[in-house]
């Protein structure tokens, strides 16, 4: 697992607090031969990252958490709702030919099929459309709901779930994406599609986390 990267000075601060905590910012600065103002950004970063905690009129102390533990904790706090992309949908009355064109134009690997009321009824993948295209049927005459995977055999996620849980579902069920849904009305099976989480979404989130660590 990746770890949170710290600068040399930040590692020195953590070591000082480990050995002498609780210790004030002024005393940390004295040991490093720096001013309190110079250390203020580093102390703020270490506190926000969870390496240190600060108590008023007492000072800083080490939390005892490793960078791997803090990184894992951060991953499990990332919510689907913060990273979901716009869903690509079609109505179930569309043809397979229209679905192929729509998938090509939107450059996605999965389409979410909805009813006239906008409720999720199915999912169609590249593989589904490829199988249909290999047949001898007129694709403009075949409705997409003939080749789609239907509810309730669709893996979904909710905005309140963690990105970690969504990634685990993608791996477990070997799918390219998950529709982000919310219940509409009283029926638990009435689901409205409000977004999508893809392998690309998850990869982008982790790249952003890496860029943040490099900035630190």
The strands making up the biggest β-sheet line up spatially as 3-4-5-6
Q: For the terminal residues, how far apart are their CA atoms? A: 18 Å
Structural class: alpha+beta
User: Total helix count?
Assistant: 9
Please outline the major beta sheet.
Answer: 4 strands, mixed
How many strands appear in the DSSP assignment? 8
Helices and strands, in N-to-C order?
A: HHHEEHHEHEEHEHEEH
> How much strand?
15-25%
Which word captures the global form? Answer: elongated
Mean pLDDT: 87
Helix content: 40-55%
Radius of gyration: 25 Å
Key phrases:
single chain; 216 residues; alpha+beta; four-stranded mixed sheet; 9 helices; elongated
Quick take:
By secondary structure, the protein is an alpha+beta fold. The protein has 9 helices and 8 strands. The strands form 3 sheets. Strands 3-4-5-6 form a 4-stranded mixed beta sheet. Strands 1-2 form a two-stranded antiparallel sheet. Strands 7-8 form a two-stranded antiparallel ribbon.
């Amino acid at each position: 697992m990746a770890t949170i990267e710290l600068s040399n000075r930040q590692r020195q601060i953590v070591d000082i607090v480990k050995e002498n905590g609780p210790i004030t910012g002024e005393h940390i600065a004295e040991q490093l031969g720096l001013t309190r103002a110079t250390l203020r950004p580093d102390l703020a970063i270490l506190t926000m990252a969870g390496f240190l905690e600060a108590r008023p009129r007492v000072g800083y102390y080490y939390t005892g958490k490793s960078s791997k533990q803090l990184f894992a904790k951060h991953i499990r706090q990332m919510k689907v709702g913060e990273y979901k992309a716009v869903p690509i949908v079609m109505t179930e009355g569309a043809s397979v030919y229209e679905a192929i064109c729509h998938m090509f134009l939107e450059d996605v690997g999965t389409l979410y099929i909805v009813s006239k009321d906008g409720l999720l009824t199915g999912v169609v993948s590249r593989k589904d459309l490829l199988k249909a295209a290999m047949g001898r049927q007129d694709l403009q005459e075949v409705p997409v709901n003939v080749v789609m995977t239907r509810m309730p055999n669709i893996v979904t996620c909710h905005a309140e779930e963690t990105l970690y849980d969504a990634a685990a579902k993608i791996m477990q069920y070997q799918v390219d994406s998950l529709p982000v849904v919310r219940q509409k009305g009283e029926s638990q099976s009435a689901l409205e599609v409000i977004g999508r989480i893809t392998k690309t979404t998850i990869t982008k989130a982790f790249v952003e986390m890496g860029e943040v660590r490099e900035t630190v």
